[in-house]
Amino acid sequence: MKKLIIITGIAVYSLFAVAMVAKSVNTTKPAASVLTETISFETAMETENPYPYLLKSSDGRIAVFDNKSGKIIKKTDTLVSILPEGDREMLEIGIKVKSEKELTRLLEDYCS
Fold first, then answer.
1. What's the 3-state SS for the chain?
2. For residue 16, what pLDDT is reported?
3. Alpha-carbon distances of 5 from 17, 19, 33, 54, 60, rounded to whole Å
4. Cα distance between residue 49 and residue 19, in whole Å
5. Distance CA 102, CA 55 (A)
6. How far is Cα 100 from Cα 53, in angstroms, rounded to an integer?
7. CA-to-CA distance for 7 and 10, rounded, in angstroms?
8. What is the share, in percent, of the chain residues with pLDDT greater than 90?
9. pLDDT tens profile 26-55
10. Distance CA 5, CA 100 (A)
11. Residue 72 burial by CB count (10 A; 0-12/13-18/19+): exposed, middle or buried?
């Protein structure tokens, strides 16, 4: 039993030492490459909308909006007021949805 405790202690200490060495290694990128990546990301976000749907409250009910145009696609009969406070807050802000599959899952969760 004592050997097992000693071996475990050595293993934990070794992992801690490796983590400290890895943390001390400078892994930052040069400023020029970071700037290029930032510009590329912003350009991609302008040309592509990865979130075509927005799940949000409308007139006290859960509604699905087209995230690009802002128009309502579908309005459910589910009252936002019956949901837990955290869900109500998220729906006030709006939940960005990537796909129809994710939208269906969310609607099933909220509306069942």
1. CHHHHHHHHHHHHHHHHHHHHHHHCCCCCCHHHHHHHHHHHHHHHHHCCCCCEEEEEECCEEEEEECCCCCEEEEEEEEHHHCCHHHHHHHHHCEEECCHHHHHHHHHHHHC
2. 57
3. 18, 21, 47, 53, 59
4. 38
5. 11
6. 8
7. 5
8. 48
9. 444 444 444 444 444 444 444 467 889 999
10. 52
11. middle
CA angle at residue 76 from 75 to 79, to 5 degrees?
120
**Pair 79, 60: CB distance under 8 Å:** yes
Q: How far apart are CA 21 and CA 3, in angstroms?
A: 27
**And the tokens for 27?**
């892994």
Model's pTM, two decimal places? 0.55
Question: Which residues, in sequence order, are CB contacts of 100 under 8 Å at separation 6+?
Answer: 53
* pLDDT greater than 80 at residue 67: yes
The tokens for 86 are 């955290």
Rounded to whole angstroms, the Cα distance separating 91 from 109 reads 13
Phi, psi of 91 (to 5 degrees): -70, -25
**Euclidean distance between the first and final Cα of the chain, in Å?**
53
- Taken as a whole, the chain contains a residue count of 112
